[in-house]
Automatic annotation (TrEMBL):
The keyword Ubl conjugation does not apply. Pfam families: adh_short. This is 3-hydroxybutyrate dehydrogenase. GO terms for biological process: monocarboxylic acid metabolic process. InterPro entries: 3-OHbutyrate_DH (IPR011294), NAD(P)-bd_dom_sf (IPR036291), Sc_DH/Rdtase_CS (IPR020904), SDR (IPR050259), SDR_fam (IPR002347). Belongs to the short-chain dehydrogenases/reductases (SDR) family. Gene3D superfamilies: NAD(P)-binding Rossmann-like Domain. GO terms for molecular function: 3-hydroxybutyrate dehydrogenase activity. Keywords: Oxidoreductase. Signal peptide: none annotated. It comes from the Bacteria. Its EC number is 1.1.1.30.
Length: 252
């Protein structure tokens, strides 16, 4: 079984992945800016008989990543770059400090933590990096300029790293789901309702699910299964790839 470090594991997709992968027998290192939330996730895993440790991590700060390296209980086999946040606003009203923060967390922060863990993966000759992208890595929606820019950039970053790590048994891939029903999405529903002058129910049906021919939210179980596959020996030659889980959105 692998030791898996998950960023943004205190809630949403990160917490769900931590729970599902721990149930499969993996050792989880749950990291989050909110150290208490990460510890709550780790404690639930341990209470269910799994193995998990919680560590504080702000991927936007070098000193936080350095502190994490000094606190790791052992080698990290798999890095899941999941930490993220959203801000919904037309560009004219988008605070540039907030714009910079989204890029720092979801693009520069991915590079920062990957850069920190990569040397040990190279030394062991093995590693798996799974980036949690988005359908917005491929398409755009109004009022999400920073998020869409960061998620598009993640694909280019992954392709470069795939080439740079091709001399070892290290892979890096990006999983791009459409909407997953998490607290982050709940906040987006409210914000989209304000910006578009719609009810929250209309946002779900007319903005979020309408582009998806299958018409349903993506589940945590799906994302955990895909992550587990990318970790497996069967996926050792899958690298630099974009795995789109969008209910047919981009097939149109």
């Amino acid at each position: 079984m692998s030791t898996i470090l998950i960023t943004g594991a205190g809630s949403g997709i990160g917490a769900g992945l931590a729970t599902e992968l721990a149930a499969a027998g993996h050792h989880i290192l749950a990291t989050d800016l909110d150290a208490e939330a990460a510890e709550q996730v780790a404690a639930r895993i341990r209470n269910d008989g799994g193995r998990a440790d919680a560590l504080p991590l702000d991927v936007s700060r070098d000193e936080s990543v350095d502190a994490l390296l000094g606190a790791l209980p052992g080698p990290v086999d798999v890095l899941v770059n999941n930490a993220g946040l959203q801000h919904v606003s037309r560009l004219e009203d988008f605070p540039m400090q907030k714009w910079d923060l989204l890029i720092q967390v979801m693009l520069t922060g991915v590079a920062r933590i990957t850069r920190a863990l990569l040397p040990a993966m190279r030394e062991r000759g093995h590693g798996r990096i799974v980036n949690i992208g988005s359908v917005h890595s491929l398409v755009a929606s109004r009022y999400k300029s920073a998020y869409v820019a960061a998620k598009h950039g993640l694909l280019g970053f992954s392709k470069v790293l795939a080439l740079e790590t091709a001399d070892a048994d290290i892979t890096i891939n990006t999983v791009c789901p459409a909407y997953v029903h998490t607290p982050l999405v709940d906040k987006q529903i409210a914000a989209q309702a304000r910006e578009n002058g719609l009810s929250e129910e209309q946002v779900v049906s007319e903005i979020m699910l309408k582009p998806m021919p299958k018409g349903v939210f993506i589940s945590i179980e799906e994302l955990a299964g895909i992550t587990a596959f990318l970790m497996s020996p069967a996926a050792r030659n899958i690298t630099g790839q974009t795995l789109v889980v969008d209910g047919g959105w981009t097939a149109q």
